[in-house]
Amino acid sequence: MSNKLIEVNNLKKSFGGLQAVDVESLVINDSELTSIIGPNGAGKTTFFDLISGFQSADSGKIVYKDKNISKLQPYQIARLGMIRTFQLTKVFDRMTVLENLLFSASSVKNDSLFRSLLSSNEQKNYEKDLNEEANRVMTELNISHMAESYARELSGGQKKLLELARSIIHKPEVLLLDEPLAGVNPKLAEDILNLIQKLSNDGISIIMVEHNIEAVMQISDRVVVLAEGSLIADGSPNEVRNNPEVIEAYLGKNDE
Amino acid sequence: MNRLLSNKNLILTIGLTIFGIVLVVTLNPDGYLRVLLNLLTFAGIYGLSAIGLNVHFGWTGLLNFGHASFMGVGAYVTLLLIPHAAGREGDITTTGLPLFVALIIGIISAALFGLLLGLPAIRLRGDYLAIVTIAAAEIFRLLVRDLENITGGVYGIISYSQNLQQYRPAFVTNLATKFDIAPSQTWVCLIAWISIILVLLLLKRLSNSPWGRALRAVREDEDAVRAMGKNAVWLKLQSFMLGAGIAGLSGVLLAFNYGSLETTVFIPLLTFYVWAIMILGGVSSLVGPIFGSIIFWVIISETDRLAYIFFENANGQQLAGVRFLLVGFLIMILMIFRPSGLLGKKEELLLDVK
Amino acid sequence: MLDQLGNGLLLGTIISVASVALSLLYGVTRIVNFAHGEIIALGAIATLFFSSPVDYRIEFLGFIPPLGLSFAISCILAVLTCGFFGGLLELFLFRPLRKNNVGNIAVLVVTIGLSIFVRHLYLLFATGKVQNFPLELQRRQTYLFFDMTPRNLNVLIAGVIVMLLVGFFLTYTRIGKAMRAVRDSEDLSSVSGINSDNIILMTWVLSSMLAGLAGIFQATINDVRWNMGFLILLLIFAGTVLGGIGTSFGAMVGGFLIGIFVQVSVGLPFMEGHTEAKNAIALAIMIIILLFRPQGIFGQKERIS
C-alpha cells in the first residue's frame, strides 16, 4: 500500500452561485501517476489552484505529507516540494531559455539581495553549478539548441517543454501538470508523454489534468473523474473507462 | 541589430545632450558657468532620484507616484539628526550626529518608509498602487507640515549647510573661485554626480546578479515565480526599498542644494518632474535618467525665457506655470509617441496593467 | 462636531457628484482619469468666464469683452462646455489611444501629464488669484440639525436631485442600460449590437458634464482657484474607493460619507490646531479600505491585486 501523499477533505469552492469544486474526500498516493479528467468546466483547474495555494477554498482541508497546507501561500507550498505548471503556459518571455532555467534552479538563499551585492566566490561557483544543472536538463529535454533564445520566441510546444524543464530542474516531490499536452503536435506530445512516464518511474509523484483520454489511459496508475466540481469516479484506468457514470458525464449532455 | 540600434540611440542621446549644453551656453553669454553649474546640479540630483524611480517602474513595474515623499523622508531624517535650526523661532540644535552617519540613517529611513508603504500596497494592481502612493505622499506632506515641533512645519529647517560644506576640499573652493561660481553649489554638484556613479555601479552589479534575475522573472510572470517557491511579494518589496533609499539620498542632496528646507519642496509636482525625466531618459535603461535629466533641465530652464516673451504681464507664479505646462505636455507626448524615451528598449516596456 | 455637519454635507455633495462622474467613466472605459480634477475646475472657471468680467488677463486675450451673462445661463453654458471638452478628449486623445491598443498604465500616465498641462493652462489664463462667483453674500441659517446659507442649501438639494436623475438615467433609459452593459462587458455588449464607441463618447460627455457641475457646486460653496480640481481629486478617489469602484450608487454614497468624515473630523479632539490634516483622514480611510476591503461598500470583488 502506498503512502498517503495528499489528502483532501470536504474541499469546497464556489464563485457567486456556481459551485466550482465540492470534493468530499480524495487521497493522492505517493509515487503514483494520478490523472484528473472530466468535462470542461468540471473544476479541474480550480482544484489545482486550491491544492497549490493559488486560490483559497471556502472550506475544507488539504494535507500534504502530514502538514495542513490549506492556508499556505503558493510559494510556501512550492518550497515543500509541490511544483505545478499552468494551463496557459507560463514562461519568462523576455529572458532566455537558459535564464529561465537558471532562475528556477537558483535557491532562495542565493537570490538574496545581500548576497548579490557581495558577489563572492561562493556565489560564482554556485552559478557554475546552476549552469551545469540547466545544461543537463536542457539536454534531457532536447532544448539545448534554444538556450540563448528568448522564451517569447518559442513555439507553443517548445514553451511547454520549457515550462516542464523549469519545473523539474527544481527536483520536485510532486509535480502538478495542468494540461501538459494541450495544443501540442502529436510527435511532441509523444515525447512529453514519455518524459512524464520517465519522471514517474524515477519516483516523482505526478498529478495530471488532461483532456487527451488516450494518453491518460496509457500512463496513469490511477484516474480520478471530476464533473461539475465533484468526484464521480476514482480507480484504475480500466475501471474508470468502463464506468457508466463517467461515460454519461462526458457524453450524456450531447445525447439527442 | 538590437546592438546597433541601441548604439545609435546612445550616440543620438549624447549628441542631444551636448547640443543642449551648448544651447545653454549660447543663450546665456554672461555668466553661463553659473547657469551651467545650477543646471548640472539639479540635473544630477533629479537624475539620481529618477534612477531610484527606475528601479521601481523600470525593473519591477511598480507605479509609484509618491516618490517625492521618499526623498522627503531621507532629507528630513538626515537634517534633523545634524546640527540645524528649525521652526518659527529658529530653535537651534547644536548637537548632532556626524553627517555621514546621519545620511546613512536617512537613507535607511527612506527605505523603511518604502517598506512601510509597500507592505500593504504592493499587492495592489497598478492603478490602485498609483492612487495609494499619491495618497501616502500627501499624508506625509500634511504630517510634516503639522508636526511643527519636530519638523519645523511651514517654517522649515535652516542653518544646516555647514555640515556638508565643512568637508569641502580646497581644490573645489579654488576651482569655484577661479571660475566665479558658488563653491557651495559646486561641492553639492560634485557629490551628486559621484553618488550617481556609485549608485549606477551598484545597480549594474545587482542587475547581473541572481537577485536581478529574480526581479526580472517577477516582472515577467509573478505566478510562475511563486510556483518556483520564490516569494514574489518580498522581491518586489526589496526593490521598492532599494529605489526608496536611492530617492532618500537624492532628497538630502536637494536639501543641501537649497540651503533651507520646508514643506513646499517635496510635493507631487516634484514626483511628476522625476517621472518626466525617467520616461524621457528611457525606462529601465540604467544611464537613461542621467541624460534625460540634463536634457530635461535644459528644456525647462530655457523655456523660462520663452515664457517672458509670450506672457509679458505674467507674474512669477504664472511663469512657473509655463514650466509645468511643458512638463505635462512632455509627459503626454512621450507616453503617446515614444514611451521608450531616449535610451529605453521598446521590448522592455511594461505598459499593461499587471 | 455637529456644527461641521453642514459643511460635511456640502463637501459630500461635491465629492459625491464628482465621484459618480469618475466612477462612471472608469466603469465604462477602465481609465483612472487623473485629469478629472481639471474638468471639475473647468466647470467653475467657465462659469466665472461667462458670468463676470475677468479682470486680469493675458494681453492677447484682451479682445474678448466681459460677457456678464446671467448666473444661471453661465452655469448651463459651463456644463455644456465641459461636456464638449470631454467629448473632444475622447475623440482626439483617448479614442486613438484605445484603437492603438495603448496599455492602461500608459494611458494613466498620459492623464497625469494632461492634468498637469491643463491645470497650468488655467493658471496662466485664469490667474493664481482666488476668485468668486458674482453672487451676493448670504448668512447662515439653521435647518434641522445643520446650518448653512440658503444658497448652499440649494446646492445640496440640487446635488441630490442630480444624483437621483443620474441613477434613474442609468437604470431605466436605453442609453443608461447600454452604458452599464459596456461597463460589464465590452465584448458581450458589442455582440448585442451596442456601438461601444458611441457609448464611450456619451459616457465621456456625461461624466464631464457631471464633473463640471461638481466644480460649479464647489465654487459656489467655496471659491474658484486654478488648482481646485487637484486639491479635491484625492478626496474623490477616496470617495469612489469607499463606495465601491465601478458602481455609481457606491460612488454616490462613498462621496457623501467622505465629505462628512472629512469635515466632521475637524471637531475631533486630536485634530485641535491641525485642521489641514483633515484630508489626511480621508486618505488614510481610503488606504485602509484598499487593504482590507478593496471592493468598498457596494462594489463587486474585482481583481484589485
Shape of chain C: globular
Rg calculated over all Cα atoms of chain B: 20 Å
Strand order of the largest sheet of chain C: 1-2
Radius of gyration of chain C: 19 Å
Q: Supply the number of helical segments of chain C.
A: 11
Order of helices and strands of chain C: HHHHEEHHHHHHH
Which segments of chain C are poorly predicted (pLDDT under 50) over 5 or more consecutive residues? 56-61
Task: Summarize the amount of helix of chain B as a percent range.
Answer: over 70%
Strand content range of chain B: under 5%
Average pLDDT over all residues of chain B: 87
β-strand percent of chain C reads: under 5%
* SSE run of chain B: HHHEEHHHEHHHHHHHHH
Count of individual domains of chain C = 1
Q: Into which percent range does the helicity of residues of chain C fall?
A: 55-70%
Which structural class do the helices and strands of chain C define?
A: mainly alpha
Main sheet: strands, sense, barrel of chain B: 3 strands, antiparallel
Could you give the count of β-strands of chain B? 3
Strand order of the largest sheet of chain B: 2-1-3
Task: Describe the 3D structure.
The complex is a heterotrimer of chains A (256), B (354) and C (305). Chain A is α/β, with parallel strands linked by helices and 256 residues long. Chain A folds into 2 domains: 4-91 and 172-254, P-loop containing nucleotide triphosphate hydrolases (Rossmann fold, 3-Layer(aba) Sandwich), CATH 3.40.50; 93-153, no CATH class. Helices cover 39% and strands 24% of the residues of chain A. In chain A, strand 1 and strand 2 form a beta hairpin. Chain A is globular, with a radius of gyration of 19 Å. Chain B has a domain at 44-266. In chain B, strand 1 (84-86) and strand 2 form a beta hairpin. Chain B is mostly helical. Chain B starts with a helix and ends in a 17-residue tail after the last helix. By secondary structure, chain C is mostly helical. Chain C has one domain (2-292). Chain C is built from 11 helices and 2 strands; from the N terminus they run H-H-H-H-E-E-H-H-H-H-H-H-H. Chain C has helices at residues 5-29, 36-51, 71-99, 104-126, 150-172, 174-184, 186-191, 196-221, 228-243, 248-265, 278-292, and strands at residues 141-143, 146-148. Chain C has a two-stranded antiparallel ribbon with strand order 1-2. In chain C, a hairpin with a 2-residue loop joins strand 1 and strand 2 (146-148). Chain C is globular, with a radius of gyration of 19 Å. Chain C starts with a helix and ends in a 13-residue tail after the last helix. The A-B interface holds A 52, 54, 73-75, 78-79, 83-86, 90-95, 99-100, 102-104, 106, 108, 110-113, 115-117, 119, 123, 127, 166-167, 170 and B 202, 205-206, 209-214, 216-217, 220-221, 223-232, 235, 238, 242, 347-348.
